[in-house]
Amino acid sequence: MERTGPLFMGGVPELLVLRLLAQQQMYGYELVKNIRLVTGEAISLGEGVVYPLLHGLERSGALRAKRRAHNGRTRVYYSLTAKGKKRLARLESEWARVSSGVQAALGDIAHG
Fold first, then answer.
1. Where do the H-state alpha helices sit in 3-81?
2. Which helix (H) or strand (E) holds 67?
3. What residues are paired with 74 via a beta bridge?
4. How high is the mean pLDDT in each 10-residue block of the chain (112 residues)?
5. Cys bridge to 75: 27, 53, 82, 94, which one at CB 3.0-4.6 A?
6. Is 71 left (phi over 0), alpha (psi -120 to 50) or beta?
């Protein structure tokens, strides 16, 4: 069974990216590595998921991108805008609602 199939992952990549960027600005591959790290390897998103998400969030005004030189390379660092912070708050609230509902259902199944 896939750990990160499309039905299971709906909205999770965006939530994780915004949450990490709320803590500090990062570049794309740094986000890929940190998602794996903060989820204890439970979720691994490839660059093919993260970069299109970053570009879409930037187009929507939720992120700001800034090119910076780092060790002789140019990287694009992303940070949250006010719109991105509002989006994150909505997603966190929705995630809390959904996960609490799933936990309740799982508890009912385990005790029923």
1. 6-9, 12-23, 28-38, 47-60
2. strand 63-70
3. 69
4. 50 94 96 96 92 96 94 94 96 88 81 60
5. 27
6. left
**pLDDT of 4:** 46
The three-class DSSP label of residue 99 is helix
Question: What does the block give as tokens for 83?
Answer: 């719109």
Amino acid (1-letter code) at residue 46? G
Q: Are 96 and 46 in contact (CB under 8 A)?
A: no
**Amino acid occupying residue 36:** R
Distance CA 102, CA 11 (A): 16
Burial label for 80, CB within 10 Å (0-12, 13-18, 19+), is buried
The structure tokens 């996960």 sit at 99
Domain 6-111 belongs to what topology? Answer: Arc Repressor Mutant, subunit A (1.10.10)
**H/E element, 88:** helix 82-111
Task: Report the alpha-carbon angle 21-49-10, nearest 5.
Answer: 85
